[in-house]
Design goal:
With about 300 residues, the protein is of the alpha/beta class. The chain contains twelve helices and 13 strands. It has two domains: about 1-100, Spore Coat Polysaccharide Biosynthesis Protein SpsA, Chain A (Alpha-Beta Complex), CATH 3.90.550; about 110-295, no CATH class. The relative contact order is 0.15. The model has no long low-confidence stretch (mean pLDDT about 95).
């Protein structure tokens, strides 16, 4: 069994209202990680908060950059860990995240890339929603062809992903020509080399801030970049495209109806560890009961 180390990157710009929660979620883990913070010359008191925890942060930089992905790419130059990830300055890891991640990558050397169950919180940091379909299917072909986008299979939750540094190096990291959807393109490149394994529990939480985050403020531009990334890739079949263009109900239904063989990790009390399961599972992260409750 190997002994993998973890490196985490956080980029920030004027995130004083949230970054302390993010920092604490990294440095208070049971398994310690290299922590890198790349600030884009914040003009609020973000850096005052960061420096309050400087003894627990391995790399701190505050200088102008060319956007979040540029900051991540710069931060990656400092990574020393075998496993890496980035967490935005308004999201947070759950207390057990690094322990689970380390156990999985140590025990399963053939796994290069994992994702936890989606979890969401509001501006106050209160958990508001957790995915109920453990072991969601993430078919490699679907990711490689860019089908994990809102109108088809839905977003891949970046904040709960971890991958081997060797996979990052294999694809040369992020494409900095893409300003809003570089992570989307990164997943298509990862999927050319590795399966994405789902972990049956949440590892992090995404903070919903409608009207403030780039994903909501620049939605049209993001969609344009996604469409550009998908040029030349295989499109979903005509029935799925038809359903995706006729409202959210049909989109959600299509995810429930599409079942594929899923590779996921579940804790075994018998084995006292995280074991690989392979079963047919839906694309939907949520059960029909949960979806109906929101209608």
């Amino acid at each position: 069994m190997s002994n993998n180390s973890i490196s985490i990157i956080t980029t920030s710009f004027n995130c004083a209202g949230y970054i302390e929660t993010t920092i604490k979620s990294v440095i208070n883990q049971d398994v310690k990680a290299q922590y890198i913070i790349m600030d884009a010359a914040s003009t609020d008191n973000t850096m005052d908060i960061v420096n309050r925890y400087k003894d627990s942060i391995d790399v701190i930089s505050s200088e102008p950059d060319d956007g979040m992905y540029h900051g991540i790419q710069k931060g990656a130059q400092h990574v020393t860990g075998d496993i890496m990830a980035w967490i935005n300055a308004d999201d947070a890891y759950l207390p057990w995240a690094f322990s689970i991640v380390k156990d999985i990558f140590d025990k399963h050397p053939d796994i290069d890339w994992i994702i936890g169950q989606p979890s969401y919180m509001n501006e106050k940091g209160q958990c508001t929603k957790v995915s109920s379909n453990a072991g969601t299917a993430y078919p490699q072909k679907y990711i490689q062809n860019g089908w994990f986008q809102p109108q088809f299979a839905g977003y891949l939750q970046q904040e709960s992903m971890f991958w081997r540094k060797s996979l990052w190096d294999k694809v040369d990291g992020l494409n900095l020509d893409i300003k809003l959807a570089a992570d989307f393109e990164l997943w298509t490149k990862f999927a050319q080399h590795a399966d994405l394994y789902s972990v049956s529990v949440p590892l992090s939480s995404f903070r919903l801030r409608p009207g403030e985050q780039q994903s909501s403020v620049s939605g049209d531009k993001y969609s344009e970049e996604v469409a550009h990334v998908c040029q030349g890739l295989i499109k979903p079949n005509s029935l799925w495209r038809f359903m995706s263009n006729h409202g959210e109900v049909l989109r959600v239904l299509s995810r429930m109806l599409i079942w594929k063989k899923a590779k996921y990790l579940k804790y075994s009390a018998v084995d006292k560890g995280w074991v690989i399961k392979e079963k047919y599972r839906p694309l939907s992260r949520y059960s029909i009961t949960e979806v109906l409750s929101e209608l």
